Amino acid sequence: MSDREQSPGGAANPEEQPKTEHLNIKVTDNNNEVFFKIKRTTQLSKLMNAFCERQGKTMQNVRFLFDGARVNPTDSPDSLEMDDGDTLEVHQEQVGGA
Amino acid sequence: MFQLFTTEDPMDLDIDNESMDLDYIDPSILPQFRPVDARSSHELLLMDLKSINASISDHFQFKRQQRSYRGLALRKSIVRNKPQPLSQSFLSNIDPAIIAMSRPSHREFPIVRMAKLATKPVRFPPGPGVASQPAPQIESQSAPQIRSQPAPDVAGQPAPQIRSQPAPDVTSQPTLTKPLNRSNSGSEELRDAVSNLNIAAQPRLELSNRRREKRRLVEAENAQRKAAEEAAKEAEAARLKAEIEARWRAEQEAQLLQSGTRRIPTSSVFPPLSESAEESILEALAKRPTSQVAKTPSGQRITRRDIGKVLPQAGTEDDRSGWLNDEIIAAYLEMVVAYGSSQKQKQQQSNKSSPQQQQTQTPRLHAFNAFFFTNLAKGGYAGVKRWAKKAKIGGSSLLDVEYVFIPVNKGGNHWTLCVVSPTRRIIEYFDSFHGPSTQVTGKVKEWLAGELGNKWKPEEWSVVEEPGREGRGGGPRQNNMSDCGVFTVTTAKMIVLGVDPNAVSAADMPLQRRRMVAEILSGGFTGGFEPNITF
């Protein structure tokens, strides 16, 4: 099972905001799921860094994907046209040679 | 006085009329010649001559009239060639004997012939009238000329003898003053006439020469102009031909690409890198691991660490294995797809025939990243349910896509490539180790089934395998434990270029690694990295 956690930002903002302003985003690496509540215009770098810190990963070794498309730190839910409840996938770097 | 009628050469008159029988003159129409007698009256002879001329002219007139279809032209020529009377002075100076001697053939050119005759030293038997007198005169004048010629050749004896003889002859002549003078002046006039003929002929010749020269110049100019025009025409034709050929070839190339035909190129697929490209590689490799060295067409950043995977450097943090990571695979496939799409767009623009096709937003090529198959393998179609839609190739529009490249990371250590060709309903699998393919192709079929829904008709689809490698991945083989990723992306590039992936071999890999880095640093197959493949 995935441990459900609230992001610090989400926990600090318990009061209801207009749905258009904030959305809940699930970030999962298939082992862990982390929920974030962020503004539509917030850069996703915040979220990505928070996830890496929490999971003890370095940004170099992970890839954030939204529906298969790479997510850049400068992207925002708006720029990716994300909806409430959408999921960001986190993948570990893959290598191969032999 | 009598008039001697001359007509121009009857042969001349009809020289352009081959059908007319000129050589043959009916003898019955000609008056009978009386036996020539120098002593008979020259008036009679002249009468004869006149009647001969007249009858000849009548004969031809008759013949011409017979050919009424040429009537007008002939009538014109008759008028032009109307017999002209000779001048009185001329006639009076002609020896009747000469006239008498005139043969029918001489009548072709009465004036010239007779003038020639007159200048000939002919001795006539003495007779009454004017005729006999000019003869000695002519003889005495021309005799020394003729006789002097053999003098140097022949022995000295006879020459003086002969010369001494006419000399007293000439001196003895003065007694015949009047007729001599008359005949003398007459012969002079004749000679003048003859020389005048020559003199007149010379300017005419000159004129005709000049005219000929002019005509030649004009002709040369015309020929030159014509040649230039022809050359221009030829050049135009050649240009058109080349254009048509080029268009035809482009169409053929497009068709070949469309049909998925893959060929072995004649030129090297991996030309050596330029100095500046090598320089840029070294410059990028010297940066810190986290610093960005390039951007993919979609804006994805590539760091020094990523290119270190392709060209690991000693003394750095680079993993020395030379294994490529998903970032490099994705970046290179993205470049391949971007290049292929731009080429296809160019073709469509040049065709201009399918603007409505363009507005169907389905990309002709697409490359998934490495995590597509990871998700697909783990979660089935549900794991990648939204991926195709996000890439605008979702649902039935997937069938309009020419190639979908799916990099497959096997076991976390080996890169392979699955190539789906929805337009041709073909699935291919390339593995530089020629490993088993059924697991991958089976999963890809699962995705196709989920994506296409009721448009999925398994019987239409086939997994194309190389002969002897059924159930296994195909393509060129690697000869080490590191190059599979390079083979994977290079195969995708070759397919987009219409090149047989087997044209690439393990020996090309060291150079291709450098090329890959240079191409990634350049941000795509531009700026000197355009693939110029000739087949």
UniProtKB/TrEMBL annotation, chain A:
Ubiquitin-like domain: residues covered: 21-97
SUPFAM superfamilies registered for this protein in UniProt: Ubiquitin-like
Region (Disordered): 1-25, 73-98
SMART domains per UniProt: UBQ
Acidic residues biased stretches: 78-87
Spans traversing the lipid bilayer: none
PANTHER family: SMALL UBIQUITIN-RELATED MODIFIER
Short name of any one Pfam family annotated for the protein: Rad60-SLD
Protein name per the record: SUMO protein smt3
TrEMBL record, chain B:
Pfam families: Peptidase_C48
GO terms classed as biological process: protein desumoylation; proteolysis
Domain Ubiquitin-like protease family profile: 300-495
Gene3D superfamilies documented for this protein: Adenoviral Proteinase, Chain A
Superkingdom of the organism of origin: Eukaryota
Disordered as annotated region, ranges: 123-190
Biased composition range(s): Polar residues: 134-148, 170-187
An example Gene Ontology molecular-function term: deSUMOylase activity
Record's keyword terms, sorted: Coiled coil, Hydrolase, Protease, Thiol protease
Recorded coiled-coil stretches: 210-245
InterPro entries named among the record's database cross-references: Papain-like_cys_pep_sf, Peptidase_C48_C
Membrane spanning residue stretches: none
Record's GO cellular component terms: nucleus
Keyword Coiled coil (UniProt): yes
Similarity section: Belongs to the peptidase C48 family.
The protein's name in its UniProt record: Ubiquitin-like protease family profile domain-containing protein
Organism: Ramalina farinacea
